[in-house]
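**User:** Once you have settled down, spend some time on the protein underneath, comparing sequence with structure tokens, and judge whether sequence predicts the tokens.
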Amino acid sequence: MTAPEPSAVRTVNAYAAQSASTPLAPHPITRRAVGPHDIQIDILYSGVCHSDVHQARSEWGPSIYPLVPGHEIVGRVTAVGEAVGKFKVGDLAGVGCLVDSCQHCDACAEGDEQYCENGATPTYNGRERESREPTYGGYSTEIVVKESFAVRVPENLDLKAVAPLLCAGITMYSPLRHWKIGSDHKVAVVGLGGLGHMGIKLARALGADVTVFTTSQGKAADALALGAHQVVISSDQAAMKAVRNSYDFILSTVPSAHDLAPYLKTLRRDGQLVIVGALEPVGVNGMQLVSHRRSVAGSNIGGIAETQEMLDFCGEHGIVADVEMIEMQDINTAYERMLKNDVKYRFVIDMASLKNQ
């Protein structure tokens, strides 16, 4: 059988949610033809993010169904458009949370496409800027994407463990770089999960002294094994009092509303607490800020250039995520386990299981 032309519209295997209350199931989707500036990627691995669950269940506002999740994508380039200069067939490539932006606002001009003032286009649960067709994510065998929104993947890294870097990795790397964290900083990471474990590895590689705040004594050994210098049980009032005014920088990965007060007290004068997890209201005590000129900020993934920088940094330092491999057919069980925090620390789908079905 002759393979279809790489520039043709293609129907490919995928898994999709048909509504907020139905499990993910097989659903063929159409990928657009490869345009002059596009690359076509044969997806090898797709990471599973908590946001996949939220959007499949329409918990962040009305979702577009059928919804094909997945924004931690690693694969091989199988076709390139005539104007593509960044990739060639056979290259490793990755796609993260974005596949387009307006490219002309101040944020885009400064390499912060994730903050596009006209709305960045998400890898899934969005709409293509030109055609207004829905975007479909990495729970599929192939993807076609603009070369400017794909990143090169270092050949020396374990590919399956690279996939979560495209979301969890850049989510933690971007604030560390923005606030110029290095060897003269004491950093604390709140929470030890998919985000937190990457925060430990990246902050440690940047030379920082790293502490993990966790409510679970059972996670202490894991945190130290991942590279933390110290673990503090945040429910232990005496332990928290002992580290008051200790940290320059705190990354909070807690995904729900939580009390910032205990952590703010551990910041030094001019220290920053950056929220990367919670998308819900969080309370702030003004006295705890003004008394030490502390600040609270937020950070959202990273731009394409910064994502490439993060991958290159990980390649140089041998950093990847700790992953548990699953087959595509096990995704609904994985979602239930993830909601119970029953994964160390990120699920990754072997897409061969979808190609072979």
